[in-house]
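User: tokens in, sequence out, please.
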């Protein structure tokens, strides 16, 4: 990933991820949402959609139920398991009450039946954002690393006037290191607890990831002050 400060800076535009495989609907949604001032990315499969939800950290996900590789319910459940807070609105042609309930059981926040009015969809998105603002004001989860304030709910790290977005995995790594502050956390434990994958002696996932995270967090990545390497063992977080 070659993120620059410009694209890491938290913009004022809300980000909407559209997971939908019908090009006409994607085009219509993109036009309408961009016109409303949202930033839009679209993916045509559940797998690509989930990857984008983790990497791009959207503020809201619009999710089609009938995707070529998976059904939207499962995509929604997976998304919820990884990120409990991102609002999800299900878009579907199915109008039956049972589908609606199943979608809400899978963790969706709202439901729109095709063909839907774009104005109504935008009103629902805005309603969700207003609700979020109210919730955030009472339940912020923040912690400090050095001079950075990490906001786990907003997925941001802020220092003075600088604010950067944190991806799902970046936040999870920081949360785990922080829980075990001043203690060494092994690469294997990071792999298992954050990525949910079995450790392998050849895996460079964690090390490569820490390099990128330091680029964001450390003033001097060559001489890190916060995320320290414990040679042969793993990493630890210090202030
Ligand atoms: Ca579809």
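Assistant: Sequence out:
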């Amino acid at each position: 990933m070659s993120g620059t400060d410009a694209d890491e800076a938290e913009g004022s535009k809300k980000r909407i991820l559209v997971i939908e495989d019908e090009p006409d609907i994607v085009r219509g949604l993109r036009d309408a949402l961009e016109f409303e001032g949202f930033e839009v990315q679209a993916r045509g499969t559940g797998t690509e959609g989930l990857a984008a939800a983790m990497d791009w950290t959207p503020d809201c996900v619009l999710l089609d139920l009938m995707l070529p590789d998976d059904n939207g319910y499962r995509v929604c459940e997976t998304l919820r398991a990884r990120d409990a807070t991102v609002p999800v609105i299900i878009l579907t042609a199915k109008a039956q009450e049972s589908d609606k309930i199943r979608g809400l059981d899978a963790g969706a926040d709202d439901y729109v039946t095709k063909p839907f009015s774009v104005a109504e969809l935008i009103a629902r998105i805005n309603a969700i954002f207003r609700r979020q603002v109210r919730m955030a004001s009472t339940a912020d989860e923040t912690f400090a690393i050095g001079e950075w304030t990490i906001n786990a709910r907003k997925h941001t790290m802020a220092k003075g006037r600088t604010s950067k977005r944190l991806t799902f995995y970046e936040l999870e790594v920081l949360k785990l290191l922080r829980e075990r502050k001043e203690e060494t956390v092994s690469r294997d434990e990071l792999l298992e607890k954050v990525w949910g994958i079995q450790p392998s002696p050849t895996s460079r996932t964690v090390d490569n990831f820490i390099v990128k995270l330091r680029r964001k967090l450390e003033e001097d990545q060559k001489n890190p002050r916060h995320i320290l390497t414990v040679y042969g063992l793993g990493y630890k977080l210090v202030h």
